[in-house]
# Entry
Amino acid sequence: MKLKMFNSIEIQQLTNIVDERCSFKYTWNNYFGIDLNDVECYLQNDILVLKKSFGDYSRIYLMTNSETELIDVLKTLPKNSIINIPSRKGIDTWKTVFERSGYSPLAVYRRYVYTNYKKGNNRNIHYAQLSDIEYLLRDLNHFFSPLTGHLPNEIQLTKFIKNGSIVVDRDLQTGEINGALCFDISGKRCELLFWFHYGGNGLALLYNVFYLCHEKGVKNILFWVNDDNVSTIGIHKMLGAKEDGLVDYLFNK
# Structure
């Protein structure tokens, strides 16, 4: 089967292609389960490249054993085509590919985990409301870069709010949000998705989430932090978080 460069194809056909390719082992592979809606596909011989666009940037996922063909494809990609490489073993096999295709390092994220976290407290727990979505989107774009962070969209924020998964520090007089922490509990595991505070003092939000996790019997709390965010890393380490060994290397063209 051959497709021209980056065609949009029917979702079930693309799912079948991806499922088949996932059964093989590749030297260069950064694919993980993503929403395949609105994904463009390039399939040729020994290479599969997926491009998911987000306005003025896109994220690239690929599987191949051909270094030469991979470099040729990456050279054709436009500016702000982001590639994430999650790994526990480093990225030596990728260095030549990126050097020869015009890519450069963008950021490094490390995953941390709490396995024995503090009890926390339920003092002043306030949850985000649907009327907050416009302001949360504004705040996320203020504190984080969409190129490096997988920021939730309006639909995802709506889901989190309806699930009671965003706690906020709200000014009770003006109703404005000073800070927010989004978390996602699934069974015995919780993932912290974003955390910000305009006053730089959002620790109470973290203690609120600790309390909620204890109430639900959560064993592990995981989260990603940019290596440049030294202050946040310091807070988490002080409270007992440790690196779990998984690193996400981001490259941009």
Observations:
- The CA atoms of residues 124 and 208 lie 8 Å apart.
